[in-house]
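Question: what's this shape?

___
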Amino acid sequence: MALRLSEQQGGLSGAVDQALVLRGEHIYRNGLAAEDVPNCTGCHGPQGEGIPPLYPLLSGQHAAYTAATLAAYRSGERVHEVMNAVAAGLSDEDIAALAEYIAGLY
Protein backbone atom coordinates (compact mmCIF):
# COMPACT_ATOMS: atom_id res chain seq x y z
CA MET A 1 0.00 0.00 0.00
CA ALA A 2 2.73 2.49 0.95
CA LEU A 3 4.62 1.71 -2.25
CA ARG A 4 1.50 2.32 -4.35
CA LEU A 5 0.87 5.68 -2.62
CA SER A 6 4.48 6.76 -3.02
CA GLU A 7 4.28 6.16 -6.78
CA GLN A 8 1.22 8.37 -7.34
CA GLN A 9 1.63 11.77 -8.94
CA GLY A 10 0.69 14.80 -6.84
CA GLY A 11 -0.90 18.02 -7.97
CA LEU A 12 -3.31 20.80 -7.10
CA SER A 13 -6.28 19.07 -5.51
CA GLY A 14 -8.64 19.40 -8.45
CA ALA A 15 -7.93 23.07 -9.14
CA VAL A 16 -8.58 23.80 -12.79
CA ASP A 17 -7.97 27.55 -13.06
CA GLN A 18 -4.49 28.68 -12.03
CA ALA A 19 -5.49 32.38 -12.16
CA LEU A 20 -8.30 31.65 -9.71
CA VAL A 21 -5.89 29.87 -7.36
CA LEU A 22 -3.44 32.78 -7.54
CA ARG A 23 -6.25 35.24 -6.76
CA GLY A 24 -7.21 33.07 -3.79
CA GLU A 25 -3.63 33.01 -2.56
CA HIS A 26 -3.47 36.81 -2.78
CA ILE A 27 -6.66 37.20 -0.73
CA TYR A 28 -5.62 34.51 1.78
CA ARG A 29 -2.20 36.05 2.38
CA ASN A 30 -2.91 39.78 1.91
CA GLY A 31 -6.64 40.34 2.32
CA LEU A 32 -8.54 42.97 0.33
CA ALA A 33 -7.93 46.39 1.85
CA ALA A 34 -10.50 48.20 -0.31
CA GLU A 35 -13.24 45.81 0.84
CA ASP A 36 -12.01 45.78 4.48
CA VAL A 37 -11.23 42.06 4.28
CA PRO A 38 -8.24 41.04 6.42
CA ASN A 39 -5.86 38.27 5.41
CA CYS A 40 -6.74 34.73 6.51
CA THR A 41 -3.26 33.87 7.82
CA GLY A 42 -3.69 35.88 11.00
CA CYS A 43 -6.22 33.40 12.37
CA HIS A 44 -5.89 30.30 10.21
CA GLY A 45 -2.10 30.28 9.73
CA PRO A 46 0.03 30.43 6.58
CA GLN A 47 -0.72 26.79 5.68
CA GLY A 48 -4.30 26.75 6.96
CA GLU A 49 -3.33 24.88 10.12
CA GLY A 50 -5.57 27.01 12.33
CA ILE A 51 -5.32 27.34 16.09
CA PRO A 52 -7.83 24.80 17.43
CA PRO A 53 -10.29 25.27 19.00
CA LEU A 54 -10.32 29.03 18.36
CA TYR A 55 -9.61 29.00 14.62
CA PRO A 56 -10.33 25.88 12.60
CA LEU A 57 -8.02 23.96 10.30
CA LEU A 58 -8.67 24.94 6.69
CA SER A 59 -5.96 23.16 4.72
CA GLY A 60 -7.20 20.55 2.31
CA GLN A 61 -10.86 21.39 2.86
CA HIS A 62 -13.03 20.63 -0.16
CA ALA A 63 -13.53 23.75 -2.28
CA ALA A 64 -17.30 23.30 -2.47
CA TYR A 65 -17.59 23.15 1.32
CA THR A 66 -15.40 26.23 1.81
CA ALA A 67 -17.35 28.20 -0.80
CA ALA A 68 -20.68 27.22 0.74
CA THR A 69 -19.46 28.11 4.23
CA LEU A 70 -18.16 31.53 3.18
CA ALA A 71 -21.41 32.23 1.32
CA ALA A 72 -23.39 31.25 4.43
CA TYR A 73 -21.30 33.62 6.56
CA ARG A 74 -21.82 36.39 4.00
CA SER A 75 -25.61 35.92 3.95
CA GLY A 76 -25.86 35.62 7.73
CA GLU A 77 -27.23 32.08 7.47
CA ARG A 78 -24.21 30.99 9.50
CA VAL A 79 -23.32 33.28 12.41
CA HIS A 80 -19.84 34.12 13.64
CA GLU A 81 -19.00 37.69 14.61
CA VAL A 82 -15.64 37.79 12.86
CA MET A 83 -16.42 35.62 9.84
CA ASN A 84 -19.68 37.42 9.04
CA ALA A 85 -17.77 40.70 8.82
CA VAL A 86 -14.96 39.15 6.77
CA ALA A 87 -17.28 37.40 4.32
CA ALA A 88 -19.39 40.54 3.84
CA GLY A 89 -16.57 42.02 1.76
CA LEU A 90 -16.14 38.99 -0.50
CA SER A 91 -17.64 38.72 -3.97
CA ASP A 92 -18.73 35.40 -5.46
CA GLU A 93 -15.47 35.38 -7.42
CA ASP A 94 -13.43 36.05 -4.27
CA ILE A 95 -15.16 33.17 -2.51
CA ALA A 96 -14.49 30.82 -5.43
CA ALA A 97 -10.83 31.88 -5.50
CA LEU A 98 -10.35 31.37 -1.77
CA ALA A 99 -12.08 28.00 -1.89
CA GLU A 100 -9.79 26.76 -4.69
CA TYR A 101 -6.66 28.03 -2.96
CA ILE A 102 -7.59 26.57 0.44
CA ALA A 103 -8.30 23.18 -1.14
CA GLY A 104 -4.65 23.03 -2.21
CA LEU A 105 -3.13 23.96 1.15
CA TYR A 106 -1.27 21.18 3.01
